[in-house]
Amino acid sequence: MSAGFKVVIPARYGSTRLPGKPLLDIAGKPMIVHVCERALEADAEQIVVATDDQRIFDAVGSLGLQAVMTDPNHQSGTERIAEVARIMGWADEQIVVNLQGDEPLIPPAYIRDAALALAGQDQAGIATLAAKILDADEIFNPNAVKVVLDKNGYALYFSRAPIPWSRTTFPDKHDIAAAAFSHLRHIGMYAYTVGFLNRYCNWPASPLEGVESLEQLRILWHGERVLVKIVERTPEAGVDTAEDLLRVASTFRQN
Q1: Residue pLDDT, tens place only, 186-217
Q2: What long-range pairs does 217-224 form, CB within 8 A, spacing at least 24?
Q3: What pLDDT is attached to residue 223?
Q4: Per-domain residue ranges for the chain?
């Protein structure tokens, strides 16, 4: 595959916990602009904000950035990205990175890592990231999604449960140091080919994703592979709440 890649940034106005989130100010700029800047720093060949709200569309356009209005009835950001690919006429082999619109602190290298990992193989139409878990509490936290890999770096399973379970060390002391295995936390950064996106959007939901509330399990359920690139660390969390907004704004002021 070609290493050239596009970035699509899904951005909805209607967040239940933080309405208007993409347009909230961080260090003098709307959050969505910071996210676009991370994509530019990753050397993406094209960046498109995918939105269903005219206010976001107008704000992005007024700043000289590209936005596309998409169907408000999409059930996921993945479906919104697939619509952008159709609108833009991108070829099946084109690599597209899904960059969440509330991740202004994502390391640009991670965006590039996901795209280059996908481009460097031909067994999967999707690549994602993971980082080694260093804190035992994280293994047992259901909000931290774990992933186990095969010998070639493809996902065997994603779960909110502590996988793999260390039979000899976890039952009594939850000792990560004694567990003879490096546990991995999944990082929700995805690179896809357009051809994969089109297949994915035609698949019904799977029972596993309903149980775990993990959309990526649909891919394994339908028999396709997911390449996982291991990166140095889990990035700082994005913006979901007013407290998150203050934390991220403080980071930008310090830098």
Answers
A1: 999 999 999 999 999 999 999 999 999 999 99
A2: 217/157, 217/158, 219/126, 220/155, 220/157, 220/158, 224/124, 224/125, 224/126, 224/196, 224/199
A3: 96
A4: 5-254
Under a CB-based contact definition with an 8 Å cutoff, are residues 39 and 9 in contact?
A: yes
When pLDDT is cut at 50, 70 and 90, the band that residue 107 belongs to is very high
User: What does the pLDDT look like over 131-169, one tens digit per residue?
Assistant: 999 888 888 899 999 999 999 999 999 999 999 988 777
Retrieve residue 81's tokens.
Answer: 């990205």
Q: Is 139 helix (H, G, I), strand (E, B) or coil?
A: helix
CATH number of 5-254: 3.90.550.10
Residue 165 neighbours by CB distance under 10 Å = 12
Residue 13 has phi, psi (to 5 degrees) of -80, -35
CA distances from 34 to 87, 113, 214 (A): 25, 19, 27
Q: Which helix (H) or strand (E) holds 188?
A: strand 184-193
